[in-house]
C-alpha cells in the first residue's frame, strides 16, 4: 500500500535524494520529501505552470517497470479524480517522466499542510464523544460520496485522514485511494491473487475470511477509528498481524465505555453497529452510517447521558444460532489452532509483491497470504466437535467397514457403520431385522421432527401495520421483532415491507420473525443554506443525501461575496435522495463605473446617476466665463468604480458674473471709457445723430442700470 498522502513526517527531506530539485514532466519542481512508504514517497512540489504548491507521490525507482504497480498508480488517479468532494484529497495529474533514462511514475495531488488524524489521537485520545464524532463526520461524509460513486476506499485508517492547519481552514480530508475499487459482488480485497492487502487493525472480518469487500468493510474500519478516538486504544492488539486478524474474526469490538465509563450507551451502540462481525448487521454503506452518526450527535447536543431507545435501535440485532452449526455465529471464547490448513495468514511478503516495507507497526498497510477456508476451521487430525459427531446408537453386532484416509489438509470424514447380520442361528435373524426396522424408523422419525415438524411456516404479513402483523404471527405461535426500518416508494409508512424469514419460509416453533417496517418514501428537505460558504453548503447537502449540482454567481448588496444567496429548488422543498440542488452564490456588491460629466448638463448627470442608484450632491455653484450656466464645472470622483449608494459630488456653473452698467451720460469720452473698462467692460464709441464734435457722451448701449455679463462691450454715443 502506498503511504498516506502528505503524512506529516518529521523530516523535511533526505540529503542526497536525487528527486529533490528535479523538474518532472517539465512542470513540477520537486521539493522536500514529507512521507515515505514501501511503494512510493510523497514530496512537496511547485507546479511551475500554475504557480501553486502541490504534493507529488513518486513510485520508488524500479517499481515503475512493474506493470501491476503502475496500473495501481493509474487506478488511484482515476478513482480519486471521480470524487469531487470537499473532504477528499483531489488528484490533479498523473504522469510518467523518462527524462533521466528510467520511468518515474508519479501522481500530482492537492497539498494539505497540517497533520494526520493519527497525530490528533496521540495528543488528545481518549477524547469526549462530541469531539470524536466531529472528527469522524467529514471522514464518513467523504466515504459516503465514494460509495455513491460506486467506489470503496479499502484502507480507512487515521494515517489516511489529513487535517489542514488552522491557517488553511482546518479542513479534514480523506486521502490515499490507492486501493479503491469499484463495488461489485466479486470485489476482492487483494492486489494479486492470494495476497490480502490492508491494515490489519482496521480489516473487517469478512476480508480475512474470504477476501470479499464491499462498502460495509469501510463502515467497519470507520467504526474502529471511532473506537480509537474514544478510548485511545485499538480494539484488538497482538504481537503479530496474524494475531490481530484472528481477533477481528473471532472477537467483537468491545464497548468503548469499558475503558471510558462516561461514554453514553448510544455511542457504545453506534460503535457496536458499525463494527459488527456480521456484516449484514452493519449499515449498508457510509451514507447510512452518516445518518446514524447525526442521530447520535443530536443526542449529545441535547446533553443526554443515556438514551435506551436510541441505543436499542442502533445495537445490532442478535442473529439466530443454527442448531447444526452453533459455532458459526457465536463468539469464540477459547483459542483455536490458527493453522495453515485452515486460514494461513503469513508474515509480510516481498515488498515488490505488496508495496510494503515492514516496520513492525500494526498501522502499516499489511500484505497477508490467505487461503479460502471454512469460517470455523478444524485442524488436521483433531477430534471433531461434539456437534459434529454422529449420535450414539444401540450396540449391536456389526462389522466395521474400513474408512478412506482423509485427504491432506482436510478433517477426517465420518462414515456411518454398516450393519451386517452374521449367519448364525436362525433365531437371530428376526431380532436383527426388528432392530434394523426400529433404527430406520427412529432415524425417519428424527428426520421428520428435526427437518419438518418442529418448524412453522411463516405467515404472510406484508402490508400490515406492526400491531396487526405481530398479532398474526403470535396466532401462528411465533414472536415478532421490529428490525431496522427501511424506506419504500410504494408501501405506506408503518406497514411491513419484508420479513425474515419471508412469507412461506420455515422458522422454529416459537421462533422470531423480524419485521421490516416502511418509513414511507425516502425524501429529504432542501436545507436552509443562505449565508453559508460553498463548501459548507456542499457538506450540508451531502449530510441530507442530496447532491450538489452547480454554482451560479450573482451580484448582491446584502450577502457577502462567496456566500449562498439562495438554492434551486428553494429551501424546504422535499426531494428524493440523490436529487441535485444548485447554489446561487454572491459575487459581492455590483461595481458601477462612472464617467466624467464635466462641461455637460448637470440635470442630465443627475438623472443618469440616480437611475444607477448613486447619490448626487452639489458641492457648490460658481460663476464661469467658459462653462454655461447649469453645466458641470467639476466632479468628485471624476472616474472610477463605485457601489450602489455611494455619492458623486458636483460644482455647477452659474454662468458668467453680471455687472450693472453705470451712468456715463454727459461724461467726457475719456472718463467714461476709463470707468467702464475698470468694471471689466469693453468700450466702443460711435457718433450720435446730433454729433457736434464736443467729445461728450450722450447715451450708452446697454443703458445705465442694466445687468450684463462682465466683459461685455458697451457702446458710447458721442455729441
UniProtKB/TrEMBL annotation:
It is an enzyme of class 2 (transferase). Residues 28-294 form the Protein kinase domain. Keywords: ATP-binding, Kinase, Membrane, Nucleotide-binding, Serine/threonine-protein kinase, Transferase, Transmembrane, Transmembrane helix. GO terms for molecular function: kinase activity. Residues 452-519, 520-587, 588-654, 655-719 form the PASTA domain. Residues 316-422 are annotated as: Disordered. Its EC number is 2.7.11.1. SMART domains: PASTA (SM00740), S_TKc (SM00220). It catalyses: L-threonyl-[protein] + ATP = O-phospho-L-threonyl-[protein] + ADP + H(+); L-seryl-[protein] + ATP = O-phospho-L-seryl-[protein] + ADP + H(+). Pfam families: PASTA (PF03793), Pkinase (PF00069). Residues 397-421 have a biased composition (Low complexity). CDD domains: PASTA_pknB, STKc_PknB_like. It comes from the Bacteria. The chain crosses the membrane at residues 433-452. This is non-specific serine/threonine protein kinase. It comes from Nocardioides astragali. The gene is pknB.
Amino acid at each position: 500500500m502506498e503511504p498516506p498522502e502528505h503524512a506529516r513526517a518529521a523530516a523535511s527531506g533526505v540529503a542526497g535524494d536525487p528527486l529533490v530539485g528535479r523538474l518532472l514532466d517539465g512542470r513540477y519542481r520537486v521539493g522536500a520529501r514529507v512521507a515515505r512508504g514501501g511503494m512510493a514517497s510523497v514530496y512537496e512540489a511547485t507546479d511551475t505552470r500554475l504557480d501553486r504548491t502541490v504534493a507529488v507521490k513518486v513510485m520508488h525507482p524500479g517499481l515503475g517497470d512493474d506493470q501491476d504497480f503502475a496500473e495501481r498508480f493509474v487506478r488511484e488517479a482515476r478513482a480519486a479524480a471521480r470524487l469531487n468532494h470537499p473532504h477528499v484529497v483531489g488528484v490533479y495529474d498523473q504522469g510518467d517522466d523518462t527524462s533521466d533514462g528510467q520511468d518515474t511514475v508519479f501522481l500530482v495531488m492537492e497539498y494539505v499542510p497540517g497533520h494526520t488524524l493519527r497525530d490528533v489521537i496521540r495528543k488528545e485520545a481518549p477524547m469526549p464523544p462530541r469531539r470524536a464524532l466531529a472528527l469522524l463526520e467529514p471522514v464518513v461524509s467523504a466515504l459516503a460520496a465514494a460509495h455513491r460513486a460506486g467506489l470503496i476506499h479499502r484502507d480507512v485508517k487515521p494515517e489516511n485522514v489529513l487535517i489542514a492547519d488552522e491557517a488553511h481552514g482546518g479542513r479534514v480530508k480523506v486521502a490515499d485511494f490507492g486501493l479503491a475499487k469499484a463495488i461489485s459482488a466479486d470485489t476482492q480485497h487483494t492486489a494479486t491473487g492470494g495476497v490480502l492487502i490492508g491494515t490489519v487493525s482496521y480489516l473487517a472480518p469478512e476480508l480475512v475470511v474470504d477476501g470479499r469487500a464491499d462498502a460495509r468493510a469501510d463502515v467497519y474500519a470507520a467504526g474502529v477509528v471511532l473506537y480509537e478516538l474514544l478510548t485511545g486504544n485499538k480494539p484488538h492488539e497482538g504481537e503479530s498481524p496474524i494475531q490481530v486478524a484472528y481477533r477481528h474474526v473471532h472477537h467483537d469490538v468491545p464497548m468503548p465505555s469499558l475503558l471510558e465509563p462516561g461514554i453514553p450507551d448510544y455511542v457504545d451502540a453506534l460503535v457496536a453497529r458499525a463494527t459488527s462481525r456480521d456484516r449484514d448487521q452493519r449499515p449498508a454503506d457510509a451514507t447510512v452510517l452518516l445518518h446514524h452518526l447525526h442521530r447520535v450527535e443530536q443526542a449529545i447536543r441535547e446533553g443526554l447521558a443515556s438514551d435506551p431507545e436510541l441505543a436499542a435501535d442502533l445495537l445490532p440485532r442478535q442473529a439466530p444460532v443454527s442448531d447444526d452449526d452453533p459455532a458459526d455465529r457465536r463468539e469464540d471464547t477459547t483459542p483455536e489452532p490458527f493453522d495453515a490448513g485452515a486460514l494461513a495468514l503469513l508474515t509480510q511478503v516481498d515488498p515488490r509483491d505488496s508495496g510494503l516495507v515492514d516496520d513492525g507497526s500494526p498501522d502499516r498497510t499489511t500484505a497477508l497470504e490467505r487461503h479460502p477456508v471454512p469460517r470455523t476451521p478444524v485442524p488436521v487430525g483433531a477430534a471433531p466437535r461434539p456437534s459434529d459427531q454422529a449420535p450414539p446408537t444401540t450396540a449391536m453386532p456389526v462389522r466395521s467397514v474400513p474408512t478412506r484416509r482423509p485427504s491432506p489438509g482436510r478433517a477426517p470424514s465420518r462414515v456411518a457403520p454398516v450393519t451386517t447380520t452374521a449367519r448364525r442361528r436362525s433365531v437371530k435373524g428376526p431380532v436383527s431385522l426388528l432392530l434394523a426396522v426400529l433404527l430406520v424408523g427412529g432415524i425417519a422419525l428424527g428426520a421428520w421432527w428435526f427437518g419438518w415438524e418442529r418448524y412453522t411456516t411463516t405467515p404472510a404479513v406484508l402490508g400490515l401495520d406492526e400491531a396487526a402483523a405481530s398479532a398474526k404471527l403470535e396466532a401462528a405461535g411465533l414472536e415478532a421483532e421490529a428490525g431496522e426500518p427501511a424506506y419504500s416508494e410504494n408501501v405506506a409508512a408503518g406497514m411491513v415491507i419484508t420479513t425474515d424469514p419471508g412469507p412461506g419460509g420455515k422458522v422454529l416453533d416459537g421462533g422470531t420473525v423480524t419485521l421490516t417496517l416502511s418509513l414511507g418514501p425516502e425524501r429529504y428537505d432542501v436545507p436552509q443554506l443562505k449565508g453559508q460558504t460553498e463548501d459548507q453548503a456542499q457538506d450540508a447537502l451531502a449530510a441530507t443525501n442530496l447532491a450538489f449540482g452547480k454554482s451560479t454567481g450573482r451580484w448582491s448588496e446584502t450577502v457577502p461575496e462567496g456566500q449562498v444567496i439562495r438554492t434551486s429548488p428553494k429551501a424546504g422543498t422535499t426531494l428524493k435522495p440523490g436529487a441535485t440542488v444548485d447554489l446561487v452564490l454572491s459575487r459581492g456588491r455590483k461595481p458601477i463605473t462612472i464617467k466624467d460629466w464635466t462641461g455637460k448638463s448637470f440635470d442630465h448627470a443627475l438623472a443618469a446617476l440616480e437611475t444607477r442608484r448613486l447619490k448626487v450632491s452639489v458641492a457648490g455653484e460658481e460663476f464661469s466665463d467658459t462653462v454655461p450656466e447649469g453645466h458641470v464645472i467639476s466632479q468628485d470622483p471624476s472616474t472610477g468604480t463605485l457601489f450602489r449608494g455611494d455619492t458623486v459630488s458636483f460644482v455647477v456653473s452659474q454662468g458668467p458674473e453680471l455687472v450693472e452698467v453705470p451712468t456715463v451720460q454727459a461724461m467726457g469720452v475719456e472718463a467714461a471709457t476709463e470707468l467702464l473698462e475698470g468694471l471689466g467692460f469693453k468700450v466702443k464709441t460711435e457718433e450720435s445723430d446730433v454729433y457736434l464734435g464736443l467729445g461728450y457722451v450722450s447715451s450708452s448701449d446697454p443703458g445705465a442700470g442694466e445687468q450684463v455679463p462682465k466683459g461685455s462691450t458697451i457702446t458710447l454715443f458721442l455729441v
